[in-house]
Specification:
Elements lengths: L19 H17 L13 H7 L3 H4 L1 E13 L4 E12 L5 E5 L5 E7 L2 E2 L1 E5 L2 E5 L9 E10 L12 E6 L5 E6 L23 E8 L3 E3 L3 E8 L4 E8 L11 E3 L1 E10 L2 E10 L3 H7 L2 H13 L9 E5 L4 E2 L5 E3 L23 H8 L7 E3 L6 H19 L1 H10 L26 H14 L2 H14 L3 E3 L1 H12 L4 H9 L5 E7 L2 E7 L9 E5 L2 E5 L6 E4 L7 E3 L6 E4 L4
Parallel strand pairs: 1-11, 17-18, 18-20, 21-22, 23-29
Antiparallel strand pairs: 1-2, 2-8, 3-7, 4-5, 4-8, 6-7, 9-10, 10-15, 11-14, 12-15, 13-14, 16-17, 19-20, 23-24, 24-27, 25-26, 25-28
Helix pairs in contact: 5-6, 5-7, 6-7, 7-8, 7-9, 10-11
Length: 571
């Protein structure tokens, strides 16, 4: 999802010549705050409802069937801002059961459920709908269920953050319509199994009917168009062959024109197609030159684009942008930066179009590797925010990428943990973007071998290719490949709000040092400089000592590590 700028909390991280007393006061206040929380971990405490649980839990009514395929047929009615259609759900029976949960959010209505020609009973419980199946459901067999729906979906007020449908018009007064629903869920506009753990293994067919003077652009490849002259409509059929997360399924309706190119990638020729409003064709042809550059950089860092069979598309939308799989939406005003601004404050953010780079990075982290529970959204956003500086690294060098990612620290709030609450559809802190990116940048320093680090990023996309994952799986994979138990590091940055403090005391040529403000068991290697000379240390929570050559040496922690420093010697 596009990054939402957050006002930062001022930190005392890596500030040179900071008065010792002020450092001590700030650290003391930080420690008092930690004690007041009565825990080293800071839980994100919210009140959750039954609807939150039904949405966020793998309920028994979800667990017994494995989603295989959707055929989503939807008619878009711009005049009434309404949708109608049906969704054919193909699933594999895993266990003996006959009660199925389908999700569709009000004011949309699930009006009918049919199986084998028989209409089924539907029990409505808010946004969850429980269907009692009459036919036998033999374990191992594939079955189909046809769901009919209609209504006026929630209209997005601040897309893509609040979610829903956007109904706008272009400069010629023609409808310009799209959905964006990562947080609120795909069930805001069509009936489905609205939980991240299960994706349609055999893909999706989308048949979208729109007024005849408009075009729909959706995921995958266009395999056919039907023209209904009497109804004055067209139906566009888009086929996705790969598994797809349901929030990534999209419709984009407008007066689109098309251009494209073939990119010679790691797996052969990749179709890269671009759809923009007729009025923006000239600007798009220039601005979208960032798309093949993105593909070059990200295939280098992350491995082959994960959806060659479904192509890559960049589609203009009436909001900022979203990572819809193989149909990335774009609304960044055809200019570099984030709506013309550099989120890092370094100047490097103006070297690329933020939405093209960030949202396309999600093709690897969000669409290829997908969280099982939205509480683990950092897997999507941290890696993708980190991809921004890897793009710079590839084209402008390591120093540029370093300046950019360090510059984004000003957007970090350290308000609540990055990981949310499980089983209730709850995201964690917005720090999942740039605190997460700086955590990954810190781990890169620990690895201290860029080719090895690149191999880990590519390995993630190979190991978890087209899979849904948990945080623990990602943590364990990285720890295994790095060769260090990074669990305390992940605990510190993902589950706690404190920033580690490298505390040191230089006395008589002896440097004493340890980590403070950390979770229990925190042991993270760190690189420091003693009068400019590199020294690699392995601090823990206990004091350690090392001899240095100068009694009054100047100590500096490598700024690439997202940590604070405290000089208790007062030098």
């Amino acid at each position: 999802m596009a990054f939402q700028l957050i006002l930062p909390i001022i930190l005392w991280i890596q500030i040179p010549n900071f008065d010792f007393i002020m450092r001590f006061i700030l650290l003391s206040l930080s420690l008092l705050f930690c004690l007041s929380a009565q825990a080293q971990m800071f839980p994100h405490e919210e009140e959750f409802t039954r609807q939150d649980t039904l949405r966020g839990t793998i309920t028994p009514e979800r667990a017994w069937w494995d989603l295989q395929y959707y055929h989503l047929e939807v008619k878009v009615n711009p005049d009434t801002k309404s949708l109608s259609g049906k969704n054919t759900v193909r699933y594999k029976v895993l266990n003996d059961a006959k009660r199925m949960q389908i999700d569709l959010q009000a004011p949309m209505q699930l009006t009918k459920a049919m199986q084998d020609g028989t209409e089924l009973e539907i029990e409505h419980d808010g946004n969850a709908h429980f269907i009692t199946l009459k036919a036998d459901q033999p374990i191992g067999e594939e079955k189909e269920l046809v769901l009919t729906f209609s209504g006026t979906p929630v209209e997005a007020i601040r897309p893509p953050w609040d979610g829903g449908l956007t109904w706008q018009t272009d400069s010629n007064g023609l409808p310009f319509i799209a959905n964006s629903n990562q947080g609120i869920g795909a069930s805001i506009w069509w009936p489905n199994k609205d939980h991240g753990y299960d994706e349609p293994d055999q893909g999706v067919l989308m048949s979208v009917t729109v007024p005849e003077n408009l075009m729909d652009v959706s995921n995958g490849r266009l395999i056919g168009t039907d023209h209904n002259k009497e109804a004055k409509t067209k139906t566009y059929h888009w086929e996705v062959k790969n598994p797809i997360n349901n929030y990534g399924i999209n419709i984009n309706v407008g007066d689109y024109v098309h251009f494209g190119e073939k990119y010679k990638g790691e797996k052969g020729d990749l179709d890269m197609d671009y759809y923009v409003l007729r009025e923006n064709l000239k600007k798009a042809k220039k601005q979208f030159e960032d798309a093949p550059k993105m593909m070059e950089a990200f295939e280098h860092w992350f491995g082959p684009y994960p959806f060659y069979e479904d192509s890559y598309k960049l589609v203009e939308a009436p909001y900022l942008g979203m990572e819809h799989q193989s149909s990335v939406t774009y609304g960044n005003a055809f200019e570099n930066g984030y709506l013309g601004r550099d989120l890092s404050g370094t100047g490097w953010g103006m070297k690329f179009d933020f939405i093209i780079i960030h949202e396309s990075g999600h093709e690897w982290f969000a669409n290829n590797i997908t969280y099982r529970d939205v509480a683990d959204m950092w897997i999507h956003e941290s890696f993708t925010a980190y991809s921004e500086n890897l793009f710079l690294d590839y084209f402008y060098g390591k120093e540029a990428s370093k300046e950019y990612v360090l510059g984004t620290r000003m957007a970090i709030s350290n308000d609540i943990p990055i990981i949310g609450t499980y089983n209730v559809n709850s995201e964690g802190s917005g720090d999942m973007y740039y605190k997460g990116a700086n955590m990954l940048h810190t781990i890169r320093q620990i690895v201290n071998d860029d080719e090895k680090w690149r191999g880990i990023l590519r390995g993630l996309n190979a190991e978890f290719y087209h899979k849904t994952v948990s945080t623990r799986q990602i943590e364990n994979y990285i720890s295994q490949k790095v060769g260090i138990n990074l669990t305390p590091v992940f605990n510190q940055y993902l589950r706690d709000i404190r920033i580690p403090i490298f505390s040191y005391n230089l006395k008589g040529g002896e440097l004493s040092y340890r980590w403070e403000n950390v979770v229990v068991g925190f042991e993270m290697p760190v690189k420091i400089y003693v009068d400019g000379k590199e020294l690699n240390l392995k601090p823990t929570e206990r004091w350690q000592q090392v001899e240095v050559s100068q009694k009054n040496a100047k100590i500096r922690v490598d700024e690439n590590y997202y940590v604070g420093t405290l000089n208790i010697s007062g030098n």
